[in-house]
Structure formats: structure tokens, C-alpha cells
Specification:
By secondary structure, the chain is of the alpha/beta class. The chain contains 31 helices and 13 strands. The longest helix has 23 residues. The chain starts with 23 loop residues before the first helix and ends with a helix.
């Protein structure tokens, strides 16, 4: 037998929250190095990491086996009473054999959270029997029903359980899982499993229930369990593993462990060979928007667009100083026709109609809607549909920055709503497209530099003051890591190199840094599906009992599902309350578009940095820059907000911009063609649109190709 003839079929990643200490990329890299043809992911009760695992496995050339270690209720999943013997749930290892099995796995895992949650997300035998097609089931670890019966000497009942699974799943799809981590009583358990296998003909398969990466990571996992349970490492009653052998062992190690049962090793390869799941990535699955009789999606969008343009042109002619409809209308019509042609060609008319519909609903209900966020402000179509309220032609914004015809991806329109009424819009969308088709999106909190030091310090029972002092040595900078912190703070580096508690603390913290700590609901993300979501992804139970996705934002985008950010913005609430107070107090029906953007008194207040409570202009750092900049026009404010980022601040771009504005540094254009592009920003490249225009003007790039260049630049 080859030294590489083994596949791990029972593996926990960091998505077995605060119990798994394996990073997916490291697992796959190790599997490839060892020549493993495949590896499974079987996190506790969830599929959080499934798409990440699937995509990365394909990239490294290792077959991904998608699975889950589910919790089986002793009776019904609906039973919320703890049984007399105290078994709240047993463990069972499920693997998707094919795409149908993957879909059934999704439904089982979703039901575990939405129907069977009681301490754990539980399923039951009846549900498994209904969704058994395409699954391979391993009998489970020490905490499985089968092993617990054998440990109690109840061989006859154990045989009944095993035969039930074999009958439901088919004899070729059920295996007795055998492990050897050196636990007390494990040899006797394995002997009982072997006898059961011989009696029933159910084959044995070897696994290792991998919770961490290397042998030396047993301590890392121990600390992780302390963080999970809120216990100190010196607590004699805390949760702990009874062995340090739950790591990602090499094929040679596994073969040595089961040398008396080589068939159990060979079965891992046979199972891996049979598993083949294909997840469609890169496709688009838009919900269907119902248009009036006699219209196609494209026809109806065009009708709304041209009607909207007429309304906007009348508005601009009435309100915009110096706007000449006679001079500008042809330009607007040409731009709108070009956008509609691109959208029709890419098949995204339905997307715009869906967004238009819920924004229209919000406006009709008097729910404040933001003027526009992100690259969607570059779309004239979005403007004429009143999805946004910013004229992209006035600000010379580029449509291809929003929707690139040379890179087929779903548009991404983020919408701000009044914080207090955002949920009304989500409720409207849910009712329109179906409760089973709409859900909010999960997000994961990570153990970051300062936080992981505090977590590990508590777990090690170190004095709070000592841990706090070390944590405060980490510089308070964006995206700070412990590695960077040690480079920038000599005292931290010294602690990490000297023997003592500080070194232990930092060593363990660095091992855990960046791992997933908890799951929560994304502040804005909502997914809308053309079918029940469980046809595409598993669902999770939020803190209020609501259904949210188990896949995060980037995985939902990879699946091609429609993702919308419904952002609840406090500033919108404050602005519209202010308008209401003006109406009540002064009898004026003031609207935002009536407020001029060239009011000198306002710019004087801004130059004095009197901006407490002003969205994006109230931080101490930004107020200091406001006083230096002394803005005079609205475009100065746009540039300031764009420049107030770590990169420009650290590179001196902000100071350069201010000095050029005030004439302290001459404005020099390397070539004359740059002047019309950079004149507004005093010769400094501030916006991504400027990068695109430079590439188009100087190198002949199409705007689509220029957008690809912009993306490559980061």
C-alpha cells in the first residue's frame, strides 16, 4: 500500500466555532503535500466553510468532500425535554456523495437550526430517512449513538441501530467509524466495532476526528475550548479532550494506527472515489420580477427609464443653475441608451427592476432613502429610476466603474434607508418574493490582535492587569496584526522572545489570530433567491430565531445569488427628523434638493471644523484636516472624504493635496492630457475613475478594460 493511501473523512475547521483549530488553506496545502487525493470537511452542525473549502480545494487540486458532523436527537428533533439519561444529541458524520446528497445535506443542516435547535442544531432519524439520497454516513465518533451503546455493553441495541442506518441508506452507503486517539476504553470500543462489522457485514472506515493541525497544537485547541466555555485552564471541571491525538495525521501515521485493520484505511480511498459534488459557480440566479402584460423585462425597464429621464430633465431644468436642456438633452439620451444596451446584453434588466421596485415602495411609504452609495452613483439609469439621487453626468462618473461589460458580474447596488424603518423594506421584499426565498446574511467575527490576546489571557488564568498591559502595546491601527505589532512595538517583540508567561500568551495568540470566533447577522446584507434558499445554501438560526444564511457575502456572490445591502443609516433618520421639525416649527416644506451646495456660511462652518454630528466629517482626524483644507466648493469635500483613508494618509497625499489647493506647491502635469482629468483635484490622482480615464486617454484602453486595470491595482 502506498504511503499516501489515506483520506481524512472527519475534519473540523475553524468553523466548528471555538472547537476547531484548523485553517482551511493549511489543511488543503498539507493534504496536497502528502498526496491525498481528497479531504472532507465535517464541521459541527454547520456548513459555514463549505464554499470556501470547495473553491480552495479546486484551486490546489484536492477533491473536496463536503460533509457535516450533525447532532442527532435521541427522539424527535422537536422534543425540547432532556431525556432521563441526559443525551441531548448524538454525533453522526454525513458526507455528500453527489450533488443530490449535497442538496439533502443542506436541507438537513438547515432543519437542524430552524426546527431542531436545543442546545445544538439537531436532526432526527425521520428527517434523515427523508433526505438520505446521495449521502454516505459514518457511524460517528465516541459521542455517537452507536458508540455510546457499545460502551454501555448494549450490543444488541447497537446492532439494531446499525442495521436501521444500513437499511435506510443502503448497504453501500453506511460505514462503522473507527478511531484511535488513545482514549481510555477505546481499544475495547474498537474491538466491539470490529465484532459488529463482522456480524453485520457493515464495513469499517478509519478516521481521526481532526480538531487541530499538528500534535503541538493540542494546547492551542485546549485554550480554544476555554474561550468557548468561559473557563480558565486551571479549572478541574472544565471541558477538555482526554488526548492530544486529535490532529491532522499523515497517511503513514494512520496506517500505523490501523495496521491490524488495513481495510479501514482502504475504505477511505473508496469513499473518496465515490464522492463527486459539482456546485455551479459563476452562474446567475435572479428572482423573477413580474412585469405588466405585454412587456418583457427589457421593454418594461426601457419604458420606466425614458419616462424617468423626462422627469429628471424637467427637474434639472427647474432646479439646477445653468442647466440647459436644449444643450444637454442629447448627451443624457445617448448615455441612457448606451447603459440600457449594455444592461440588456448582460441580461440584468430584472435586477434593476427588482431594486427599482423596493426603492419605489420605500419612497411611497415615506421611508427616507439615501442619495446613493458606491459605484452605483455612476449609473444614469439608476438616477432616472430614482434608485439614486446623484446625477452621474454632472459629476463625470463612469458607468463601467459600476457595471463592466468586459467582466460579467452581477451589479452591486447598496441602498441606505432610515435606520428606524429599514426593516419595513426588507419585510416588503420578503412578502413579495416569498419568506423561503429571502434571508439576511451571516457574517463572522474574527479573533483579532488585541482581542485574541485578551481571550487567551483569560483562558490561561493570567491577571487581568498583566494581560491588559500587553494588549495595549498593540498599535491602534487599521488591520493591525500581531506580526506587524511586534515589528512596530519593541516591547511586544521582547515579550515574545523572552521565556515567561508573556511569550506563552503571545505564541498561543498568534496561533489563534484571525480564526473565526462567532457568527452573527450582517448589518445590511440580504439575499433574494428565485427558489427556496435551501435549494442553494444552508440556513442558520439567528439570535432572534430568524433564518439567516450559513454562507457569508462572498460565497453567496460566488453562487450567483442576488445580494443587496439594505443599510440602516442613522444620519438619514436625523436629517429627515430635522426636516420634519422645520416643517412643524416654521411651516416650511423644505426638501433636500432645495438646499444649495454653495452656501458660503456652511463652508465657513466646515473650515472651522464645527462638524460634530456631521456624517463622515466628525472624527478628530478629519476635523483637523478640514481646518487645513478650508473647503470652498462641494468638490473639495468629495475629495477630502475620498482621501481620508489609511493609504493616502500614510503616503502624504492629503498634505500634497492641501498644499496644491492653497498654491504652496505648483501643480505640474506630466503630460498635457492629464490636466482635464486631474484639474479638479489639483493634479493629484484621488479617484478610481481618474485612473480609468488616464488608462483610456493615454493607453487607449476601453473603459471596461480600464476598470479591469483598476481592479488589478487594488
Amino acid at each position: 500500500m502506498s504511503s499516501t493511501s489515506f483520506v481524512h473523512l472527519h475534519v473540523h475547521s475553524e468553523y466548528s466555532l471555538l472547537d476547531g483549530a484548523n485553517r482551511i488553506d493549511a489543511l488543503l496545502k498539507r493534504a496536497r503535500e502528502w498526496g491525498m487525493p481528497a479531504v472532507a470537511l465535517t464541521d459541527h452542525g454547520n456548513m459555514f466553510g463549505a464554499i470556501k473549502f470547495y473553491r480552495q480545494a479546486q484551486q490546489v487540486g484536492v477533491k473536496p468532500i463536503l460533509g457535516c458532523e450533525v447532532y442527532m436527537a435521541p427522539g424527535s428533533r422537536f422534543d425540547r425535554n432532556t431525556p432521563p439519561r441526559g443525551e441531548r444529541a448524538y454525533h453522526l458524520t454525513l458526507l455528500a456523495r453527489n450533488t443530490q446528497g449535497y442538496k439533502n445535506l443542506i436541507k438537513l443542516v438547515s432543519a437542524g437550526y430552524l426546527e431542531g435547535f436545543y442546545y445544538h442544531p439537531r436532526i432526527d432519524k425521520a428527517l434523515l430517512a427523508d433526505h438520505a439520497e446521495g449521502l454516505i454516513v459514518l457511524s460517528g465518533c465516541w459521542n455517537s449513538e452507536l458508540c455510546q451503546l457499545l460502551l454501555k455493553g448494549e450490543q444488541a441495541q447497537a446492532e439494531q441501530v446499525a442495521c436501521w442506518y444500513r437499511e435506510v441508506l443502503g448497504s453501500e452507503n453506511y460505514y462503522l467509524e473507527i478511531q484511535d486517539q488513545g482514549l481510555e476504553g477505546q481499544q475495547e470500543l474498537n474491538a466491539a466495532l470490529l465484532r459488529l462489522s463482522e456480524k453485520t457485514g457493515i464495513p469499517l472506515v478509519a478516521t481521526n476526528d481532526c480538531h487541530y493541525f499538528d500534535l503541538e497544537d493540542a494546547q492551542v485547541h485546549d485554550v480554544l475550548l476555554c474561550i468557548q466555555t468561559g473557563k480558565g485552564i486551571n479549572d478541574p471541571k472544565r471541558l477538555r479532550f482526554s488526548s492530544n491525538q486529535f490532529y491532522f495525521k499523515s497517511p503513514a501515521e494512520m496506517q500505523a494506527l490501523f495496521r491490524t485493520c488495513p481495510a479501514s484505511i482502504e475504505q477511505t480511498l473508496a469513499i473518496a472515489e465515490r464522492c463527486a459534488v459539482e456546485i455551479p459557480l459563476g452562474q446567475t440566479f435572479l428572482p423573477r420580477y413580474t412585469v405588466p402584460d405585454g412587456f418583457t423585462l427589457d421593454d418594461y425597464l426601457e419604458k420606466l427609464a425614458w419616462e424617468g429621464l423626462e422627469e429628471r430633465l424637467r427637474f434639472l431644468e427647474k432646479r439646477e443653475k445653468g442647466f440647459s436642456r436644449r444643450q444637454r438633452e442629447a448627451y443624457y439620451r445617448q448615455r441612457l441608451a448606451e447603459e440600457l444596451q449594455i444592461i440588456k446584453k448582460m441580461g440584468y434588466a430584472g435586477y434593476f427592476l427588482i431594486v427599482w421596485d423596493f426603492v419605489r415602495y420605500a419612497r411611497e411609504q415615506g421611508i427616507p432613502v439615501g442619495p446613493g452609495r458606491g459605484s452605483a452613483a455612476g449609473s444614469l439609469l439608476a438616477y432616472v429610476l430614482r434608485i439614486t439621487d446623484l446625477d452621474p453626468l454632472k459629476y463625470d462618473l463612469i458607468f463601467e466603474r459600476f457595471l463592466n461589460p468586459e467582466r460579467v458580474t452581477l451589479p452591486d447596488i447598496d441602498i441606505d434607508f432610515c435606520m428606524e424603518r429599514r426593516d419595513e423594506v426588507i419585510r416588503y421584499v420578503t412578502e413579495k418574493y416569498g419568506k423561503e426565498n429571502v434571508a439576511q446574511i451571516i457574517t463572522f467575527g474574527k479573533m483579532l490582535a488585541k482581542g485574541v490576546i485578551r481571550d487567551v489571557g483569560r483562558a490561561l488564568d493570567l491577571p487581568y492587569g498583566e494581560v491588559d498591559k500587553i494588549a495595549k502595546l498593540v498599535p491602534a491601527k487599521l488591520n493591525m496584526t500581531l506580526e506587524r505589532a511586534m515589528q512596530e512595538e519593541p516591547r511586544l517583540k521582547e515579550l515574545a522572545e523572552q521565556d515567561g508567561t508573556g511569550k506563552t500568551l503571545l505564541t498561543l495568540a498568534r496561533k489563534l489570530e484571525g480564526m473565526t470566533r462567532h457568527a452573527s447577522t450582517h448589518a445590511a446584507g440580504v439575499v433574494i433567491s428565485p427558489q427556496p434558499l435551501t435549494e442553494f445554501l444552508p440556513l442558520y438560526r439567528g439570535t432572534q430565531g430568524e433564518a439567516i444564511t450559513q454562507f457569508p457575502m462572498e460565497d453567496i456572490e460566488a453562487l450567483g445569488l442576488l445580494k443587496i445591502d439594505f443599510l440602516g443609516l442613522r444620519t438619514l433618520t436625523v436629517i429627515y427628523r430635522t426636516l420634519e421639525l422645520i416643517r412643524q416649527g416654521r411651516g416650511e416644506n423644505l426638501t433636500l434638493d432645495q438646499i444649495p451646495l454653495d452656501d458660503k456660511a456652511t463652508y465657513q462652518l466646515l473650515s472651522e471644523a464645527r462638524t460634530f454630528g456631521v456624517f463622515q466629517l466628525e472624527s478628530q482626524g478629519l476635523r483637523e484636516i478640514l481646518q487645513k483644507l478650508r473647503p470652498e466648493v462641494f468638490e473639495d469635500l468629495i475629495a477630502l472624504v475620498a482621501l481620508y483613508r489609511p493609504g493616502p494618509l500614510g503616503s502624504g497625499m492629503v498634505d500634497e493635496f492641501i498644499q496644491r489647493k492653497h498654491g504652496k506647491v505648483p501643480i505640474v502635469y506630466e503630460v498635457p492630457q492629464l490636466e482635464p482629468i486631474l484639474k479638479e483635484t489639483y493634479g493629484v490622482i484621488v479617484y478610481q475613475e481618474q485612473v480609468m480615464k488616464i488608462a483610456s486617454t493615454l493607453a487607449g484602453f476601453s473603459l471596461g478594460a480600464a476598470d479591469l486595470l483598476r481592479r488589478a491595482m487594488g
